[in-house]
Design a protein that fits this description.
This protein is mostly helical. The N and C termini lie far apart (35 Å). It has a domain of 41 residues. The longest helix is centred in the C-terminal third of the chain and has 11 residues. It holds the Pfam family DUF1289.
Length: 59
């Protein structure tokens, strides 16, 4: 049975004015680029931090 990968993506792929953070999911470009290679634990850790980020602000 295939496993579903956790993702915060909401299919609203728009970058902030600085071009560094997705306004839809809140991830930085670095996080988005690394996402396929991250473990499920690493993905969940990033997702847990997203709620603490101000909208459109990279941490």
């Amino acid at each position: 049975m295939p496993q579903t990968l956790s993702t915060p993506c909401v299919s609203v792929c728009t970058l902030d004015a600085a071009g560094r953070t997705c306004l839809g999911c809140g991830r930085t470009l670095e996080e988005i680029g690394a996402w396929p290679a991250l473990s499920e634990t690493e993905r969940r850790a990033i997702m847990a931090r997203l709620s603490a980020r101000p909208a459109g602000a990279a941490q």
